[in-house]
Amino acid sequence: MATALKRKGGSKSEGTTRIQGINRRIILDAALEVFSAYGFRGSTIDQIATKAGMSKPNLLYYFPRKQNIYVTVLEDTLEEWLRPLDDIDPDGDPVEELRKYITLKLKMSEEKPEASRLFANEILHGAPAISDFLKGHLKKLVDEKATVIRRWVDERKLAPVDPYHLIFMIWATTQHYADFDVQVRAILGSQVNRPGFHEQTAQAVIGIILNGIKPRD
Amino acid sequence: MATALKRKGGSKSEGTTRIQGINRRIILDAALEVFSAYGFRGSTIDQIATKAGMSKPNLLYYFPRKQNIYVTVLEDTLEEWLRPLDDIDPDGDPVEELRKYITLKLKMSEEKPEASRLFANEILHGAPAISDFLKGHLKKLVDEKATVIRRWVDERKLAPVDPYHLIFMIWATTQHYADFDVQVRAILGSQVNRPGFHEQTAQAVIGIILNGIKPRD
DNA sequence: CTGCATTTTGACCAAGTAGTCAAGTTTTTG
DNA sequence: CAAAAACTTGACTACTTGGTCAAAATGCAG
User: Fold this and answer.
1) Which residues of chain A lie closer than 8 angstroms to B184, CB-CB?
2) In Å, what is the separation between the CA of B72 and the C1' of D18?
3) Residue B90, SS3?
4) Please, where are the H alpha helices in chain B?
5) What is the pLDDT of residue B95?
6) Do B101 and B179 reside in the same domain of the chain?
7) Which are the contacts of A216, defined by CB distance < 8 A and separation ≥ 6?
8) Do B129 and B198 share a structural domain?
9) Are residues A206 and A131 in the same domain?
């Protein structure tokens, strides 16, 4: 039989037991750590299994292929990662909405840098596992928000700016603090750990970008 | 004997022959392509050898370890990659100097995205091979330029802005177009290939950042 | 052209790793 | 509590891959 996970015949169609729920969660958490640190090819099933506290065959009982674990972690992460963009309110104040968005993205980079790195690594290597997602769901979402931003520009609520490049700039800048963390630390040294560092970062980033796009009369 | 490459005894101390010069160049070019596409762990010596048009043992005759090839490519790349920052003229016009710098970085991302990706991948995975370089040479260079920018701010030639975060933002944004190329393409589609796309990108990026840091009276 | 140094490679080895399997243990359920 | 289902794992296989080696081919100085 092909499917590894099944239930007693005729039972609920929802095919997960208590133990499955627990273990899949443990595995995915371990996998995020490992994959984000070493990349797909650089990670071994054994590493993930050890971090998850179980044997390799046991892990493979839940995810029969290494690819399966990877894709699942990636998809789970992606959904969460994009949500803030979706939450930009077309009827809000443009500058305020973008301030909120940038703040949120910086906070996510701070709190879950592994997610950012996992994603960055995937894209960097050509996004073999999610190119459909990029061209489909992501493009649609970005197109939508770009339209909103363009309207804001037309209404003179923002300086004339290309919406797509603005979005790229926000992504690039905010994720930089997660993806290039070691470089940031090498250059800034211990001040990265000082309290208030993240607020200071947010202020600097927001300052430049928002001043760059505020309408000039 | 430990050294693989040697010359006829007592000859010139410059230990490279004609063939060595040619082949090392070929290997390093092939290695940049392969490593930037697949990362260190994801690349095989065989891949590089094939792309270089020689057998694996032959490649290993020139670089006895996979690490050696990688580190050599990385160092060669790094030097070139940082040069534009070094070229910022402390006595030039601030806005003009930064415009030049951003333009140059965007051009490099367009013309040699592999170099950017190689570097991004290394940093993303903790920079095991170049952390000394980051904390030494790079930090020194950035500190130097940050001082210049800070002086420009003090002289009211730029709006008050944190020099380090400004530099990070420029790096992040310009390299984004190389490192996240597939994502940019997925979202913008065919217009990425239209003539003038890069000029348009430059204009958008420069527009936001420079407006963001121009002194406001 | 000769002989030595350099370059090249097929065949091989050892280590590491994805995935299998059959046999055990634990959990659930009637 | 007994049987069935779900879970767990040690031992194993097949394959990939970094690196070795000895012998052959080529380049080159005199």
Assistant:
1) 168
2) 18
3) coil
4) 18-42, 45-52, 56-62, 66-86, 94-111, 113-124, 131-133, 139-154, 163-179, 181-188, 197-213
5) 95
6) yes
7) A159, B211
8) yes
9) yes
Indicate which CATH number applies to the domain containing B187: 1.10.357.10
| Model confidence pLDDT, tens digit, residues B139-180 | 999 999 999 999 999 999 999 999 999 999 999 999 999 999
| pLDDT at A12 > cutoff 60 | no
Bases on strand C under 7 Å from any protein CB: 5-11, 16-22, 27-30
CB A32 within 8 A of CB A118: yes
Instruction: Quickly give B8 CA vs C2 C1' distance in Å.
Output: 18
CA proximity to A203, closest of B164, B11, B190: B164
Residue A51 belongs to domain with CATH number: 1.10.10.60
Residues in B 91-120 with any Cβ partner in A closer than 8 A: 117, 120
B130 shares a domain with B23: no
Q: Are residues A100 and A182 in the same domain?
A: yes
How far apart (Å, rounded) are the C-alpha atoms in residues A109 and A117? 9
Q: Which nucleotide is nearest to B19 (CA to C1')?
A: C7
Assembly ipTM = 0.91
**What single DSSP character describes residue B191?**
G
- pLDDT the model gives residue B5: 37
Q: Which nucleotide is nearest to B23 (CA to C1')?
A: C7
**B interface mutation test: which of A44, A149, A211 has the most B CBs within 10 A?**
A211
Is residue A55 located within the same domain as residue A139?
no
The enclosing H or E element of A56 equals: helix A56-62
Of residues B166, B154, B162, B159, the one with CA closest to residue B217: B159
Question: Chain B 24-53, CB below 8 Å of chain A: which residues?
Answer: 37-42
Give the per-residue pLDDT at A9. Answer: 36
* Closest among A189, A146, A183 to A168, alpha carbons compared: A146
CA distance B88 to A42: 38
